[in-house]
């Protein structure tokens, strides 16, 4: 079935209420910490209080004898018994020197490298006993100098022997000579230095893991709050524990948000699984909020210099970028691909810039590992590009919308100079719709009204593009990644015609149980209630690559569509047999198989029953059952895009920024469920606004302590920070997946930060303020205004 026929099916584009919400709203969801196994003990981790130190000795003698303590493991106990944590998606350096991949032991051996690093695991009968004993573990450290700022990394003391200058890799894309050549003949060059602030993901449910081991079957089970259980299992068995994969079952039950931070194989997950066998008991660990701040992989943390060359008409000629990316103390599972193929390849944005050169230096510092956080690389690219485009508009006297429109790509497919080929889009349509919805025509009047109150009003634009549906194996491989990321779906039709879908995607808030059911119900012509979706269990789902990169509907959904093609093909054979017709004469629509040109028909339910009750069934030609599995590897990314327009009021006396208006027009191709998509956009926008105005993860420069280690110091956006959003969409269906969908899960977080900061800068630029880094807190805005005065 083609994407255009699919879009016309019933249930597609319908705001079906979320099937999963009854269980969440009535408190009957089951998160990992809700699971309690027989014979279960609790684990607490002793963590490094220092950012960088040698471990001289660990004395567990006092803790060992404390009530309830079963065992205390240190790095030495694990050393040699398992491998280190892997960096799954390796990127190779492009300057000829090998990328440094230092060992990442599950528990530190000899040295700690960030505050919160894992020093020992204490296992006791109760959580309180484990906590008390953990406090009694005495560690003698020899403290070393710490480096936390990526700009200082090269001068800092080496974290790892294999990286004496803390440099991990250099990576570049584009033709440097050609870019230099266009800069030499440019009519205007705009330059910008910016920092993309480090963020803490802060999912509502902190991470949690319970390992258990069944001696009778020689099998492990790990319950874990995770976004991709099959990959977790693969990495843990193949790289760390050296176990046959089928001997480990990973179950990620209800997960209360991940935002990228639960894609990785974390030390705690491995430690509790391994310890379960050693102690012959289940071992449970749940992070408290402070541990989440310290030890969940953080996001962003780039420092960038960029330059945009323009001709006399404001057409972009070239973009030159250098970024220093902070990777933290160790390589987290996917960290190396974030500042490279998920970042640099997006720097064409929506524009026809013919030459782009991007160079990335990635560094180790004494901070928590940095990895993907909602958007992963693409927010960093969009922030840079949309900031420099707006600055170029102001420098050349063009309006923010005009400079964008002059440079929009209008013809598709479009090959960018940074490896991607956009299949479809209509950037002018999104811009025009956004301008109308935002009432840009009324901005001058609103600005005057603000001025009358002594406030400065500014308007900010951002026209973002992202690459979702991660990742086509052929493109990922060509860009140096180790693996591509297909998806798997199984459709099990039951004899009564109801259906269970087994998907390798994982829903941790995105509503897959509803939208995937809509897809199946639409194709088979059955009620949405008759379709259940199973995910998050390696024991039930054949295989999966999980959820991140807004890939689930476009890759996981496409795998389901492929399995449905097989179901339909087999069901037609059964229908032909039932109606004593030739298979080629059977057509299927609206849940009915009909013989072309006649009124003969059988329902999907009749066919399903026949598959399992095969009277007079031609068993020599047809197997009983109606159950199909498919794997789908996309041929390209999907390219959601849109234009966001914001308005802010700034109080020049205090620096307080009030976000007054936010308009977002997105292109997600065919939309399965507009209510769920709107919710996804809302969530993303709030996270992007949080980054722009409030959130900032700060380490003390000297001690390497996390200064913003609680919600008292790390400001999350709240309802009163956010205006009512005005949302709309344009639709250019994706041309290469069978649903025509493009991902929507990260768009809001990608497009919104530059829209907000451009508006803040627009508000205060006549006061002489030229530059402002995120978050635009009152203190920063006020200081920038004062600095501009002098
Ligand atoms: N959808 C749709 N029509 C489209 C596109 C999507 O109806 N054209 C629906 C999908 O069927 C799905 C939802 O919208 O129910 C999101 O789909 P998609 O864009 O494919 O994204 P994923 O499901 O792969 O989710 C991943 C994405 C990412 S990368 C992060 S980070 C993120 C996000 O989703 N983390 C989230 N949204 C989140 N929402 C919640 N509540 N919690 C998180 O941790």
TrEMBL record:
The family database entries (SMART domains) matched by this protein are listed as: Ald_Xan_dh_C
Q: Does the keyword Oxidoreductase apply?
A: yes
What are the Aldehyde oxidase/xanthine dehydrogenase a/b hammerhead domain coordinates in residue numbering? Answer: 26-145
A molecular function (GO) held by this record is: oxidoreductase activity
* Cross-referenced Pfam families: Ald_Xan_dh_C (PF01315), MoCoBD_1 (PF02738), MoCoBD_2 (PF20256)
Q: Which domain of life is it from?
A: Bacteria
Q: What is this protein called?
A: Xanthine dehydrogenase family protein molybdopterin-binding subunit
